[in-house]
Amino acid sequence: MPHKTFNLDEVARYLHLNADEVQRYVRERVIPHEERGGRLVFKRSEIDAWASRRILGASEKRLKTYHRQSSERVLDFSKQHAIVPELLHADFIEPALTSRTKASVIRDMVKLAERTDLVNDATDLLKSLEERERLCTTALPGSVALLHPHTHDAYRFSDSFIVFGRAIQPLPFGSPDGSTTDLFFLVCCQNDRLHLHVLARICMMCHHTDLLLNLREAGDATALFNALIAAEQEVVRQM
């Protein structure tokens, strides 16, 4: 089982930051932490939620900085640091989700995840996704959502993966700008540090390329997959 708490150095490595940055966040009281016997202690569950919220809501400058830092630390894909071809395949894409409510799209994304044959407990995954959405929506401006479990435990999956679904009809998913949502990623990572990097990479693809437009225009799963590959390549070239 993963550690339930981090010390200062551990949380810095986990967040792809340096210790000075974490200490600054502590002084500014923007990162959840406790002091025990003069030592800083960070609860893993609180850090998970805090970090993913900051990535999803990051400004353009902060997102670029974080993405560059995490890319420098996550070097286990390819020379181009590609994520999409490693974690996502055309078979993991549903171009015509029939979901009409937030609850039904979460259930349908879990069913899509089961297609990968990498989910060990679909009921547990569904529960964790629902817990994450109760904590704070994963919907972003631009009518896209980046679903992910509330906690990132290796036992849930046989390997890390991403699935993607496009709804036939946009639906309310809690976007901060009040818009409906029709594009849904589900990010499932065994490695929790990888999880944060993947979130940052997809956010960069959504906000700094024409990906969202191209995903809506693509005709089938293969075309959707190719649009994702092209968007990631563009982001990597910008680094």
Describe it for me?
The protein is α/β, with parallel strands linked by helices and 239 residues long. The protein folds into 2 domains: 52 residues, Multidrug-efflux Transporter Regulator, Chain: A, Domain 2 (Orthogonal Bundle), CATH 1.10.1660; 155 residues, Mannitol-specific EII, Chain A, CATH 3.40.930. Helix content is 49%, strand content 17%. The protein contains 10 helices and 8 strands. The strands form 2 sheets. It has a 5-stranded mixed beta sheet, sandwiched between helices. It has a 3-stranded antiparallel beta sheet with strand order 1-3-2. A hairpin with a 2-residue loop joins strand 2 and strand 3. Helix 1 packs across helix 2 and helix 4 crosses helix 8. It is globular, with a radius of gyration of 17 Å. It starts with a strand and ends with a helix.
Name the descriptors.
Mannitol-specific EII, Chain A, 239 residues, alpha/beta, 8 strands, 10 helices, five-stranded mixed β-sheet, Multidrug-efflux Transporter Regulator, Chain: A, Domain 2
